[in-house]
Amino acid sequence: MKMVRAILRPEWTEEVTDGLAEAGYYSLTKINVFGRGKQKGITVGDVHYDELAKTMIMMAVEDEAVDEVIKIISGKAYTGNMGDGKIFVNTVEAAYTISSGEKGL
User: Fold this and answer.
1) Helix boundaries (H) for 3-102
2) In this predicted structure, what is the pLDDT of residue 98?
């Protein structure tokens, strides 16, 4: 089982979540976040914005689904410009449903 965290431009969040849902990946968490990447913020005129608004999508998926999920997220969020986002994948040792106590996704 893997945890996929994608940090995206907020304007692409709905397109990404719709694409994931169409492929059968409904379970996810969306969080509004602020941060900066390699571009170190953005300068508009005389004003420098050190941190930019982004959305983080977090979801646990089975190992065999990781490549498909990454492909969907990357395809839907891609503009070709700096700041499109980043995807992180980590191993999940276990998951439990609180209401039932059931182990697994």
Assistant:
1) 13-22, 66-77
2) 93
CA–CA separation, 16 vs 21, rounded Å?
Answer: 9
76 phi and psi angles, rounded to 5 deg: -80, -30
Q: Is the model's pLDDT at 49 over the cut of 80?
A: no
Q: Which residue has the tokens 């907020």?
A: 10
- The CATH number that domain 2-91 falls under is 3.30.70.120
Q: What are the residue boundaries of the structural domains of the chain, listed by start?
A: 2-91
- Decide: 57 and 12 in contact? Cβ < 8 Å: no
Give SS3 for 68.
helix
pTM for this predicted structure: 0.86
| Amino acid at position 14, single letter | E
* DSSP assigned state of 24: T
